[in-house]
Specification:
By secondary structure, the protein is α/β, with parallel strands linked by helices. The protein has nine helices and twelve strands.
Length: 431
């Protein structure tokens, strides 16, 4: 195995060990026994490659010392003959001498000039290639930028400063719902549970004091009734923190910004999940999927028929005009790929332009929407009250972190949510 191959093997072994460490560090845990065993095996393998590289590099250093010490001296290996002029046989010739004495050149000359003289009328002569296997006893190393022990030692790594995060699912819900502010820890709103529905035509009265006699018209107007319910929504806290050393914050100027951005995005991600799926237990929001009073559209015949009936349900029962559909991306793919009897896409296929719509209603996709059902709604009837928008704070007062030069960076937000009209939301079965 040559030097380059050994270097590649060494790098691969070290990268394998590093990958195991990174996986544990990313999960925020210590190494398992199996992971430690993998790392030890990789390091043992890397040490073997490193030792062999040292031997090769030692040999190269010896050759360089021979060259330096023998500079200007003709070194002749013992037992090698000399030509009459004192030059070792086969060595010391000029390139021209080696070329004209080569078998390839001699054979070619016999074909074009048997007499040893090339005719003056000869044109287009092409000599076959002559290989020079050795141009001297020692050869100087070629200086390249490919090795750390050659010119590569002067080539500095280009540190770009670019940082590419793993990325998160796009969020859509906050753009659909109503967002308001509150300065309290408890939000209260009134919800109408029964509306006035007693209106009717009334004839003109024909008696001042009705007695109930035949022909009397009292002209009494019907009395309407309506009921309200007081709803309270408590402000909830969503928070997350990470630990980091003070040295890391000092040495890497961009690390604080990266941490802040990661924490804020994690809060926003969990907020959308809570708004949709919170179960209302403990400090969880009571999300849209678990709110009482929302409408349900059962599956009928196929997805398109069911979705069209859901629009009617929202208009008739909910008395609301839908503002958007919400689908899980996998479910919307199913709808998007629907074809008619002629295998033509209902929505024009992959060349369709513009935002997606279903039965004229805009469609959004959320990765937090559970697959299997879609939501059709007037989304403005869901309200988010911001008590405290996302904030970032930092302290070393956590546990024993002060004496360990560590700090906790904490991100948190406080908010409440409620459906001021639950019947403005229809849960639509897709199968």
């Amino acid at each position: 195995m040559n030097k380059k191959e050994l270097q590649e093997k060494l790098a691969a072994a070290l990268l394998a060990a590093r990958a195991v460490c990174d996986e544990a560090e990313k999960a925020g845990r210590e190494l398992t026994a199996d992971e430690r065993q993998k790392i030890e095996a990789a390091l043992k393998e890397a040490k073997g490659y490193k030792d062999r590289l040292k031997v090769i590099e030692g040999d190269e250093e010896l050759k360089r010392q021979i060259l330096d010490m023998g500079a200007g001296i003709e070194l002749i290996p013992e037992g090698q003959g000399k030509r009459p002029d004192g030059v070792p046989a086969g060595r010391g010739k000029t390139l021209g001498e080696q070329f004209v004495s080569a078998p390839q050149f001699q054979a070619w000359m016999k074909t074009i000039a048997p007499s040893g003289v090339v005719p003056e009328a000869a044109r287009g002569l092409n000599c076959p290639p002559v290989e020079f296997k050795d141009l001297g006893l020692f050869r100087k190393d070629l200086i390249t930028g490919l090795s750390d022990v050659s010119a590569g030692a002067f080539v500095n790594t280009d540190i770009t400063g670019l940082y590419e995060a793993i990325g998160r699912y796009p969020l859509v819900l906050r753009d659909l719902i109503s967002v308001r502010q509150t300065t309290s820890d408890l939000v209260e709103f009134v919800q109408q549970t029964q509306q006035v529905s007693e209106a009717a035509p009334v004839p003109e009265a024909n008696v001042k004091h009705p007695s109930g006699a035949t022909g009397e018209i009292a002209g009494t107007k019907p009395q309407g009734t309506m009921y309200f319910e007081k709803i309270q929504a408590a402000v909830k806290t969503i928070a997350v923190y990470v630990g980091v050393t003070k040295r890391a914050l000092s040495d890497a100027a961009q690390i604080r910004g990266i941490i802040d951005q990661e924490l804020r995005e994690d809060l926003a991600d969990e907020l959308e999940n809570q708004l949709l799926n919170g179960n209302g237990i403990g400090e969880n929001f009571l999300g849209i999927a678990n709110q009482p009073g929302t409408l349900i559209q059962a599956f009928n015949t196929n997805i398109l028929t069911t979705c069209r009936q859901a629009i009617t349900t929202l208009l008739v029962t909910g008395r609301q005009i839908p503002s958007a559909w919400m689908f899980n991306p996998a479910d919307w793919e199913t709808v998007d790929l629907l074809q008619d009897a002629n295998n033509q896409y209902y929505w024009g296929g992959p060349l369709t332009q513009g935002p997606p719509r279903l039965w004229g209603v805009p469609v959004v996709q959320s990765f937090h929407k559970a697959a299997g059902t879609a939501l059709l709604a007037n989304w403005r009837k869901c309200v988010l009250w911001d008590r405290q928008q996302a904030t970032i704070s930092m302290t070393d007062s956590h546990d024993d972190w002060f004496i360990r030069n560590m700090v906790a960076i904490l991100a948190e937000l406080r908010a409440a949510m409620g459906l001021i009209r639950p019947t403005a939301f229809v849960d639509v079965a897709l199968a």
